[in-house]
Amino acid sequence: MHINQNYLNLKDSYLFSVIAKKVKEYTATHPDKNIIRLGIGDVTLPLVPVVVSAMQQAVTEMGAAETFRGYGEEQGYAFLRQAVCGYYGKKGVALRDDEVFINDGAKSDLGNILDIFSPDNTVLIPDPVYPVYVDTNIMAGRKIIYMNGNAANDFLPLPDKNIRADLIYLCSPNNPTGAVYSREQLKAWVDYALENDAVILFDSAYEIFVRDKTKPSSLYQIDGAKECAIEFCSLSKTAGFTGTRCGYTVVPHELKRDGAELNKLWLRRQTTKFNGVPYIVQRGAEAVFSDAGLAQINGNIDYYLQNARIMADTLTKLGIWFTGGENSPYIWLKTPNGMPSWDFFDFLLEKANVVGTPGTGFGVNGEGFFRLTAFGNRENVLEAMRRLQSVGIAT
Amino acid sequence: MHINQNYLNLKDSYLFSVIAKKVKEYTATHPDKNIIRLGIGDVTLPLVPVVVSAMQQAVTEMGAAETFRGYGEEQGYAFLRQAVCGYYGKKGVALRDDEVFINDGAKSDLGNILDIFSPDNTVLIPDPVYPVYVDTNIMAGRKIIYMNGNAANDFLPLPDKNIRADLIYLCSPNNPTGAVYSREQLKAWVDYALENDAVILFDSAYEIFVRDKTKPSSLYQIDGAKECAIEFCSLSKTAGFTGTRCGYTVVPHELKRDGAELNKLWLRRQTTKFNGVPYIVQRGAEAVFSDAGLAQINGNIDYYLQNARIMADTLTKLGIWFTGGENSPYIWLKTPNGMPSWDFFDFLLEKANVVGTPGTGFGVNGEGFFRLTAFGNRENVLEAMRRLQSVGIAT
């Protein structure tokens, strides 16, 4: 009997626990200070009314014999898969409803999708990055190659013809950098994947923040992507579902490797190891994609984007370099005067009573950078920006 | 780029699609016949009132800024983990709340738990069995050894000292056979696991049907089990959650292999590849474990057990050998006169217009056996039993 030895290669992530500890210690010695948290990646606005009312109705249905629902299809109810197809249709992407798999959030599927690929595949992952891409591949013992994001490439690394990879993670708009790939840049990635027989795992969890119509919000807006990419999306940030749990994964029928349709492999994985998302939640998700739902959630997105704009304007005024802040809820800033990420964290906490996230938490290339998020409330964002301007962090 | 080659070793399961096709063809040619389905493993009674009202309140909370909840802990809210501990306490099993992991159903965790074990482990699986145990291990390329369930051992196979296994699947009350292990039999398994450094994966999804207090409803009622077993349970059958999705996995701190606490490995797996169960659903699940909730769900279990008793009485009257029918919602019967499972399926469909599940769908030892389930409504069960007695299937 042995455990999976790859787990011994995982590094413990102390990022958020260290942040919590530092904040706790500071507030213990400075109980009168009003700390503003701009570090969390969680939403704060409640579920929109159409979603609440759809879920209320679904709960009522589950309590009556005539309308009760037992097992649904593992890949989700057709009503929701069709609603997702309708949403993609508005982006100019035609999907069949059996190419859409409803899940309990992008994080689950981003990890679980690896089941259908050989552990011998080489994986290409940007750095800095959402830590889940790295950890799930360490767990499976895959060889990982990192590609550098940095100020020189605006944290949007492009393919290197000299590197050979089988699985490629891309996230646009990016977490943590907020950077958004252009159409031409994504075309370069699709071309690279097609040439190298690679598969792109495209994390589009922040697609709804893309307001600039010249930027793609789905990789399938790029010709050829259906032959080389799986797309993961979530309602967590789109509709405030971080505690309600629903997302979707798209696996086009055109995507084949080793002569097998990946769609069929993924269906087999899900029917064997998953039992679907709660009916109640799927009804709530369906309501998101209604005309009223899209209007209501876009009102919330407007609010978060306005927060991002306020932060971006302040950083511009202070002469601080950053990515994100538009088409994204994240701002990724270069620390003033080359301060290490954690030093800047301490500085901001002590001088401005503002909490953010040190860039080193997202990879080695994050050193000297810092993440702010736009999910807080307006008053706090305005107050935090006033403080930033008064503590002398200009470069 | 290669796919996971182990997927090519999976057999397609045509069981339920063949059943559906046969029933469809029969009804097309006999539109006047009233078909009674006693084959499905899905519940039919709606969610109980305390669950409905807890979820209504939770939905309302999610729609208001002051009570909205974002990300919860991946392993579940403390209020629910503590409720599960309370439930185990009533069985005489003391658990700490960080030994309980809330999930979206036993099926997910029964598959995902394999992540933390080496692919080199040998797996011991009873036959007949719930197909998920086999398929998830084929996907991971593990060596599988089968142990025979048959009429001679009442479909309750016991350890064989000559066989060496690392992971052992046990399900009691069993799906599909309805058979329930005694305390002594489970003690033999715990002893075997401890001697062989093996880990038992104990599926207790049907524990609430155990009304005979001399039979264990948790493996942890057996001394030593915490050092060698992980237990998986679900509210699917317990509380009609097949479409609402909530269960729990117990990983005791005492359980260590290769010097590592499996609890810590599983926590790492879940925090990396899972984002928790919806808050709304966790509030519904919490209500299940309240005094009112337990009273209400046990009313439903009484109803299903009475269905099982009616079927068992009929089979006894007809002189047909079976397991289950008490302490279980399943009845596993020997087909009359050694009829092959599918022949008996056709016979029942055509002569009694009753649909069940051929035993061969659960493994080679299922040939010559047949599964009936107690989840239908009383009227249908009574009518089906009247038909069985009138079509001359006595042995």
Structure write-up:
Two copies of one chain form a homodimer. The first copy, chain A, has twelve helices and 15 strands. With 395 residues, chain A is α/β, with parallel strands linked by helices. Chain A folds into two domains: 5-47 and 293-390, Aspartate Aminotransferase, domain 1 (Alpha-Beta Complex), CATH 3.90.1150.10; 69-290, Aspartate Aminotransferase, domain 2 (3-Layer(aba) Sandwich), CATH 3.40.640. In chain A, the strands form four sheets. Chain A has a seven-stranded mixed β-sheet, with helices on both faces. At the A-B interface, helix 2, helix 4, helix 5, helix 8 and helix 9 of A face helix 2, helix 4, helix 5, helix 8 and helix 9 of B.
What descriptive keywords fit this protein?
about 400 residues; Aspartate Aminotransferase, domain 1; 12 helices; 2 domains; seven-stranded mixed beta sheet; alpha/beta; homodimer; four-stranded antiparallel beta sheet
Residues in helices of chain A, as a percent range: 25-40%
Q: Strand order of the main beta sheet of chain A, please?
A: 2-8-7-6-5-3-4
User: What is the number of strand segments of chain A?
Assistant: 15
Interface with most residues = A-B, 77 and 77 residues
Question: What is the H/E string of chain A?
Answer: HEHHEHEHEEHEEHEEEHHHEEHEEEH
Calculate the terminal CA-CA distance of chain A, rounded to whole Å.
57 Å
| Secondary-structure class of chain A | alpha/beta
Q: Whole-number radius of gyration of chain A? A: 21 Å
Number of structural domains of chain A: 2
Look at the structure and name the CATH superfamily of the largest domain in chain A.
Answer: Type I PLP-dependent aspartate aminotransferase-like (Major domain)
Largest sheet of chain A: 7 strands, mixed
CATH level 1 class label of the largest domain in chain A: Alpha Beta
